[in-house]
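Design job #97: recover the sequence.
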């Protein structure tokens, strides 16, 4: 683990970089070449790290093969990360009633469910997820709460179709868990994974970078930092937003701020840009709902 001095050093380091330079440093440290990426593509990659630093953050990324979705979490896996490549169950994820053993959601910082697009979740798991994604609780065992974040990863084989019709992506997945508006409403952020280009190794290997394992530990340390009050002091939200929409926007912006502005030094136009990204994501969910028939 890292101590407060390490966290303070990280915050001080941020002040030595422009936003552009800081994003490139982080991406390079996480293993990405950022030279050919636009701002939206960079933010999509940065969003993969939000579950490390934001409590109860849920991320869904459906994208093309070869964009390093799974590899990102495999490379940066430590003892606080659990990756499922087989379909999880209520017993191994939440709580096993037969032996009274807690599931990995109580023991880990981040749960990654890989290949989620082709899984088939049982009804009891879907029901448990609805509660957990909503408020971090589940109806099983005595200690039925956690702040573990959840990442759902999946592939979409027809890249051109997904790029042209992103609102139809969910309905074309084998796993119908995501074809439920109650689930979509609860997911914090649906990443535009289909816009991420195929992975390329960084060209300039001599550039400065942070030790990846140190960076992940710093992000985990930031999970206990409260950025929501900071956002609330600066932003007055439209009263037309429902409770979940507001919550998802705040959690997304909070995660981006912890990664990109850990020292809480930010210009108004930068904050507006992050709010726009989060708000557009909620609008995208509305477009998805048009093609979903709830069970």
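Job complete. Output follows.
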């Amino acid at each position: 683990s890292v101590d407060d001095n390490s966290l303070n050093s990280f915050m001080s380091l941020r002040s030595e970089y422009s936003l552009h330079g800081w994003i490139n440093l982080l991406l390079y440290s996480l293993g990405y070449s950022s030279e050919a990426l636009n701002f939206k593509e960079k933010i999509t990659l940065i969003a993969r790290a939000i579950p490390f630093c934001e409590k109860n953050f849920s991320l869904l990324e459906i994208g093309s093969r070869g964009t390093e979705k799974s590899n990102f979490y495999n490379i940066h896996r430590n003892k606080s990360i659990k990756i499922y490549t087989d379909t999880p169950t209520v017993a191994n994820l939440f709580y096993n009633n037969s032996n009274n053993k807690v599931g990995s959601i109580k023991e880990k910082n981040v749960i990654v469910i890989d290949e989620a697009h082709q899984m088939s979740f049982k009804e009891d798991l879907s029901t448990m997820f609805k509660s957990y994604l909503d408020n971090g609780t589940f109806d099983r065992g005595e200690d039925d709460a956690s702040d573990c974040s959840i990442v759902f990863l999946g592939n979409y084989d027809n890249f051109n179709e997904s790029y042209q019709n992103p609102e139809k992506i969910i309905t074309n997945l084998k796993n119908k868990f995501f074809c439920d508006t109650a689930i979509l409403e609860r997911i914090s952020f649906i990443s535009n994974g289909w816009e991420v280009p195929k992975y390329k190794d960084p060209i300039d290997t001599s550039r400065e970078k942070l030790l990846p394992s140190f960076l992940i530990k710093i992000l985990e340390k930031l999970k206990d930092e409260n950025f929501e009050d900071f956002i609330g002091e600066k932003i007055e939200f439209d009263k037309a937003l429902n409770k979940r929409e507001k919550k998802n926007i705040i959690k997304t912006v909070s995660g981006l701020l912890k990664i990109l502005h850990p020292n809480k030094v930010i210009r108004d136009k930068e904050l507006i840009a992050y709010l726009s990204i989060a708000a557009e994501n909620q609008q995208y969910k509305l477009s998805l709902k048009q093609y979903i028939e709830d069970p």
